[in-house]
Amino acid sequence: xxxxxxxxxxxxxxxxxxxVVPNRESLARYGLQVDDVHEVVETALGGxxxxxxxxxxxxxxxxxxxxxxxxxx
Length: 73
What we know:
This protein has one domain. The strands form two sheets. It has a two-stranded antiparallel ribbon with strand order 1-2. A two-stranded antiparallel ribbon has the order 3-4. The longest helix is centred in the middle third of the chain and has 13 residues, at 34-46. The protein is 33% helix and 23% strand. The chain is built from three helices and four strands; from the N terminus they run ββααββα. β3 and β4 form a beta hairpin. By secondary structure, it is an alpha+beta fold.
């Protein structure tokens, strides 16, 4: 991505993790805050839980996230 200073991919205990370190000066130029970036990243990659569905004795969280083709870009 343009403007990226460094990227590190590390597989840890079977999970995939992404560290996002927002540039506060750049965000301030556009009137954004770090929480705005966190919200977009959470929605794009994992999706925030919006509800829980109960099917018999099982409970499942329902998350909202971007479509798969947007997440791959």
